[in-house]
Amino acid sequence: MGIGGCIVLIVVGAILTFASDWELESVDLDLVGLIMMAVGGIGLAVYTSIYKRRRTAGGAIPVVEEHRRDVI
Asked: Do residues 16 and 53 lie in contact, with contact meaning Cβ atoms separated by under 8 Å?
């Protein structure tokens, strides 16, 4: 799940929790929304930490120095 999926989970969870007045007998939509926001937040934190580690560990390019000898 990437950044987009995490943000979608957070947004849909917030809509279910704060902006909907639906009532179902067997499902508490406020709790479902809170769970979706929590999963989206945790996923976003995990994704950014893995992306940060991957970017710092593998991003180094070795420097190659070249020396030329000009022959006259």
From this structure: no
* Per-residue pLDDT at 60: 61
pTM > 0.90: no
> Is 60 part of any domain?
no
For residue 16, tell me if it sits in a domain: yes
Give dist(CA 55, CA 18) in Å, integer.
36
Is 45 within a domain? yes
Tokens 């939509």 -> residue: 29
Q: The domain containing residue 29 runs over which residues?
A: 3-55
Q: In Å, how far from its chain's centre is CA 45?
A: 6
The pLDDT-based confidence of 1 (bands split at 50, 70, 90) is: confident
